[in-house]
Design goal:
The protein is an alpha+beta fold. It has helices at 24-39, 41-46, 85-97, 123-134; strands at 7-12, 47-52, 64-68, 73-76, 116-120. It has a single domain, classed as Glutaredoxin (3-Layer(aba) Sandwich). It contains 4 helices and 5 strands, in the order E-H-H-E-E-E-H-E-H. It has a 5-stranded mixed sheet with strand order 2-1-3-4-5. Strand 3 and strand 4 form a beta hairpin. The model has no long low-confidence stretch (mean pLDDT 86).
Length: 135
């Protein structure tokens, strides 16, 4: 039995650029999977790439999320399948190395510094922080 991936990249498959009919999410998924296969080793073993029907980032297509167990989740918008693969793979390497997934926008590679839509604390951490305030 194989171990499940410890990280996931989720790509919106509904996003479209205004006035266009194509959905770049499907192309982005294919590019990411190919890049992880090329990278090999830990990268292809530690990341799963999947699509989802909608992540409500419609005004900023194409939307991509990074998730990891007990890690902050990141949501990026305005991602272009033909231009942003290197930044996405670079962030995946960085994200995998971060214990809690937390990093400054200045630490994110290239375009991802300015296209972050959200950074969501890990569910456990958010719960723990709220309990500490009540105590």
């Amino acid at each position: 039995m194989t171990q499940p991936c410890s990280h996931r990249i989720t790509v919106c498959t509904s996003c479209r650029h205004k006035g266009e009919t194509d959905r770049p999410g499907y192309e982005l998924i294919a590019h990411l999977r190919a890049a992880f296969t090329t990278a090999g080793g830990d990268m292809s073993e530690n990341f799963d790439v999947a699509g989802v029907a909608c992540m409500a980032g419609c005004s900023r297509p194409c939307t991509v999320a990074y998730h990891g167990k007990n890690k902050a989740t990141y949501l990026f918008g305005d991602i272009e399948p033909d231009h942003d693969i290197a930044d996405l793979i670079s962030f995946a390497q960085q994200y995998a190395a971060l214990e809690d997934g937390w990093c400054s926008s200045l630490d994110r590679p290239g375009k991802l510094r300015k296209t972050t839509l959200a950074r969501i604390p890990a569910a456990f951490q958010a719960l723990q922080d709220s309990l500490e305030k009540v105590s």
